[in-house]
Amino acid sequence: MKAIKTTIKAAAFAGAACALATTGYAVDEEYDGCKGQFTFVDSDATYEDFDFWLGDWQVVATESGELRSVDDVKMTLDGCVIEQHWTQMDDLFSAQGSPNRLRGTSLTGIDATGKWRQVWTDTSGSNFVLTGGLDEDGVMVLTSEWITAKDQAGNPVDFRNIWHWKPMPDGTIHNWGFLQRDSEDGKKTKYFDITYHRSVKGGSSFVLKKPEE
Fold first, then answer.
1. How would residue 211 be classed by pLDDT, with cut points 50, 70 and 90?
2. What is d(CA 93, CA 144) in angstroms, rounded to the nearest whole number?
3. Could you tell me where the beta strands, DSSP code E, fall in the chain?
4. Which of 53, 54, 73, 132 could be a cystine partner for 142, CB 3.0 to 4.6 Å?
5. Other C-beta atoms lying within 10 Å of the C-beta of residue 114
6. pLDDT of residue 108
7. Nearest-5° angle of CA 134, CA 159, CA 82?
């Protein structure tokens, strides 16, 4: 009985090896399929559209230059997905009553419709999906689904987030976001405006904004 099981295992292994051989990939060969044009549907998206966001960053307030956060953005899953880890360095988005500063993470990739899609979640309880792509100026624009929440008076309100990433000639990234209320034509309010600077080992760091008293 033991000899039969051994023979079956050997046959299964040989079959798997043959399957790998017919695909043209060796077992130790890195799969590099997520590059170039997205081909499942008619789409202008390419896997390199958002490469400018990859790296280790110090993120500052665009106007004052004060440090807002550090952000680690890297490729994962064979280059098919972008993984982000955001660490807030001030109390701007701290949850009320929480002693901790905001930390967030996202996964971003091209979905089955050929659009860029980002899933964001953070320690403040925010969880939403943003969808979009590059506009005609090369700016990545991602817009969230509509979210219903209560305002300070307890009344329900509908809103969505519209985020922009614009690569600049000097290698920085201008990143800003609007909160839009009620409808497609509703009022937009800018609630953050920041600039990404690449972190350089041994290089200068930006000034940390002191927490408000």
1. low
2. 18
3. 55-61, 67-76, 81-88, 103-110, 116-122, 127-134, 140-144, 147-150, 156-167, 173-181, 188-198
4. 132
5. 16
6. 98
7. 35
Gyration radius (Cα) of the chain, Å: 22
The region of weakest confidence among 8-12, 34-38, 111-115, 144-148 is: 8-12
Give the residue among 116, 121, 120 at the shortest CA–CA distance from 80: 116
Ramachandran sector of residue 114 (left: φ over 0; alpha: ψ -120 to 50; beta: rest): left
Average pLDDT in the 97-108 region? 87
| Sequence-distant (≥ 6) Cβ neighbours of residue 86 within 8 angstroms | 69, 70, 71, 102, 103, 104, 105, 106, 122
Whether 52 shows a pLDDT value over 70: the answer reads yes
Residue 15's φ and ψ, nearest 5 degrees, are -65, -40
Which phi and psi angles does 176 have, rounded to 5°? -145, 160
Whole-angstrom CA distances from 186 to 42, 65, 91, 149, 213 are 31, 31, 28, 16, 35
CA 118 to chain centre: 6
CA–CA distance, 55 with 196 (Å, rounded to integer): 10
pTM: 0.79
Distances (CA, A) of 12 to 8, 9, 25, 28, 105: 6, 5, 18, 19, 40
